[in-house]
Amino acid sequence: MKYCTMAIRIFITGGTFDKEYNELNGELYFKDTHMQELLSLGRSRLPVNIKTLMMIDSLEMTADHRNYIADECEQCEEEKIVITHGTDTMAETARVLANQVSGKTIVLTGAMIPIKFGSSDGLFNLGSALAFVQSLPPGVYVAMNGRYFNWDNVRKNRQTGIFEELKSVSTSAE
């Protein structure tokens, strides 16, 4: 088994992962990333290089934002990349990355519940993404709920809040 010796690049883009809760008005907002805290809580000993690209909700993400993420992935020296991303449009960004970046292993992950809520799935998803990025071949993947999905075979089921494979989903046209 080959172990990761080069640092893993972690790109922060926002999403529920890094949202804060305003107790006065009940709104969610962005302040700073919680990545260092999460890596410490998870007792990670991996060499990582962290860069915040943006702090936005993925529903506000535009084609220009996605192209910027792809450019950063293409230009960074690391071959293994984890991207924290909002779950609503994660599959869309994965598609752009797959079409624009080659020769690197890229894993997108996020959270359904903000880290600051204490019962978030974010720490588990981050740990899974860091493990998957070290073991999967070059390509683009989504890591959520302890599973990884190929970029072209994943969707967020809005009824259940769980990521699932497209090909295992039956169509109503049958």
TrEMBL record:
<dbReference type="InterPro" id="IPR036152">
    <property type="entry name" value="Asp/glu_Ase-like_sf"/>
</dbReference>
<feature type="domain" description="L-asparaginase N-terminal">
    <location>
        <begin position="8"/>
        <end position="160"/>
    </location>
</feature>
<dbReference type="GO" id="GO:0004067">
    <property type="term" value="F:asparaginase activity"/>
</dbReference>
<dbReference type="InterPro" id="IPR037152">
    <property type="entry name" value="L-asparaginase_N_sf"/>
</dbReference>
<protein>
    <submittedName>
        <fullName>Asparaginase</fullName>
    </submittedName>
</protein>
<feature type="binding site">
    <location>
        <position position="58"/>
    </location>
    <ligand>
        <name>substrate</name>
    </ligand>
</feature>
<dbReference type="InterPro" id="IPR027474">
    <property type="entry name" value="L-asparaginase_N"/>
</dbReference>
<dbReference type="Pfam" id="PF00710">
    <property type="entry name" value="Asparaginase"/>
</dbReference>
<dbReference type="InterPro" id="IPR006034">
    <property type="entry name" value="Asparaginase/glutaminase-like"/>
</dbReference>
<feature type="binding site">
    <location>
        <begin position="87"/>
        <end position="88"/>
    </location>
    <ligand>
        <name>substrate</name>
    </ligand>
</feature>
<feature type="active site" description="O-isoaspartyl threonine intermediate">
    <location>
        <position position="16"/>
    </location>
</feature>
